[in-house]
Amino acid sequence: MKTRRHFLRSSTALIGLPVLESLGFRRFASAAATKPAAPPKRFVFLGMGFGVTQDTWYPSQDEVGAGYTMPQGLAPLEKHRENLTIIQNLANQYNNEAHWGSTFWLTGANRYAEPGQSFHNTVSVDQVAAEQLGRDTRYTSVQLTYKGGDNSGHGPGLSLAWNRQGKPVSALNTPVAAFHKLFSDDTTPLAQRQAELLKQRSILDTVLEDAKTTRRGLTPADQDKLDEYLQSIREIEQRLEKEKEWLEVPKQVPDPAPVEPDKSLQGVEEIKVMYDLMAAALQVDTTRVFTYRQPLDTFIRSLGATITAHNMSHYEPGPRMETSQMRDLEQSKLLARFLDRLQGIREADGSSLLDHTTVTLGSNIHSIHYLTNCPTIVAGGGAGIKHGRHLVTAPKTPLCNLWLSLLRGSGLEAESHGDSTGTIEDLFVA
Predict the structure, then answer these.
(1) Which strands make up the sheet holding 252-253, listed edge to edge?
(2) Using CA of residue 291, residue 297, residue 298, residue 299, what is the dihedral sign?
(3) Bridge partner residues of 91 (DSSP)
(4) pLDDT (tens digit, 9 = 90+) per residue, 363-419?
């Protein structure tokens, strides 16, 4: 199918032009006005690691609904009050690791669910959404994280994302890597890239053939391990097949185009650029699902802190609590800026990108080492939530009830998720 969309092309980028009547769009204006294309749904999950400051981040549980007082730690989000919901009392019933703020955050898994195993995980909600939303985009989903193994309270994993086998999904760990993945076209000649894909496919075929022979004589436990391995191979096959489909399609870049970030970015500036890259990629529909496991050690140090994130998490009145509160405030400023960006980007039908995107900020860790009442903010109109409110659910409501609510509210098929017991109907009732 040919398109009448006009582009500016360079050796590394494709930039879409706005609708210009002089380029022949006038006679299509009325048709576009009567039948605007429905903007797709998007998801962004932002993981915080070591939780928040109990005393100054949560609204009072006595102030439920629209009339709540915005707490000190969330003050920068006041201007987005009508676009967000704060939810209390959500928890993962199986979470028992006080330093694991992200490992089970999006899965709700029981790490001891498999007999004889000390670690088990299941699929994360972002990957469930990506299976349905990512069919028509260049990347089914994109995972972002930070460089290095600092103690930011996230726990095991390579990102926030876990696949259907409960295995970690790798992530881009610098803004530079994210920039090139999302917006830089490969300058390698097409024939060479096609040959490389063919070579990789040939290797996979050989592995799969050898696996048939290897299976004979294996114990049931080893057969399970082999099946797990083969599933990983099938996922690589699917990725290669998708790469083949997009091989000759230049990457789209919004106008103005993002510029390559400085390699030395850390902390606040690093998070800021990652947010900008996500907004730009969502704008041109490169992907519809993002996860971002955020740094914390480098984040608080960029704010002038002289203690580690772990020490800060054991706060008490004094310098540690002040650092924790400073972290909360800056985190809220960054989120408010991100929501500003999404709200300022227009869709073809005149609505904003934020109107069709669900942004969730949170952690499995409440504060210090408490694992109940996970800090949770949901923003954006993608899931049909009636925003502008503070909701207090029943104590220990499964966090997975929220994930199931967001999936179904976005029109995605899901019978259940993790340890969910149902949806949170109050989210959708004003």
Answers:
(1) 7-9, 14-16, 252-253
(2) positive
(3) 398
(4) 999 999 899 999 999 999 999 999 999 999 999 999 999 999 999 999 999 999 999
Number of residues that make up the chain: 430
Give CA separation, 398 vs 58, 72, 124, 202, 404, in Å.
18, 27, 14, 45, 10
Q: For the whole model, what pTM was predicted?
A: 0.86
Q: Cα-Cα-Cα-Cα dihedral of 277, 283, 284, 290, to 10°?
A: 60
Angstrom distance (rounded) from CA 42 to CA 179: 19
Token pair 């210090």 in the structure block, residue: 368
**Closest Cα partner for 174 from 277, 104, 72, 257?**
277
CATH fold of the domain at 42-177+258-428: Alkaline Phosphatase, subunit A (3.40.720)
* Residue ranges, the chain, pLDDT below 50: 1-36
Instruction: Provide φ and ψ at 297, rounded to 5°.
Output: -55, -55
Instruction: Give the Å distances, CA to CA, from 294 to 80, 281, 413.
Output: 22, 18, 29
- Residue 345, CA distances (Å) to 43, 231, 243, 339, 341 in order: 16, 39, 28, 10, 7
Three-state DSSP at 346 gives: strand
Show the tokens assigned to 359: 């942004």
3-state secondary structure at position 241: helix
Quick check: bond before 256 cis, omega within 30?
yes
Q: Is 125 helix (H, G, I), strand (E, B) or coil?
A: helix
Q: Which amino acid is at 24?
A: G
Distance CA 406, CA 385 (A): 8
What are the extents of the domains in the chain? 42-177+258-428
Integer angstrom CA distances of residue 106 from 101, 360, 365, 383, 427: 10, 11, 13, 17, 18
pLDDT tens digits along 172-209: 999 999 999 999 876 667 677 677 766 666 666 676 66
Strand 14-16 versus strand 252-253 pairing type: parallel
What is the residue-wise DSSP string for 274-332? HHHHHHHHHHTTS-SEEEEE--SHHHHHHTT--S-HHHHHT--TTHHHHHHHHHHHHHH
Question: 10 Å Cβ neighbour count for 274?
Answer: 27
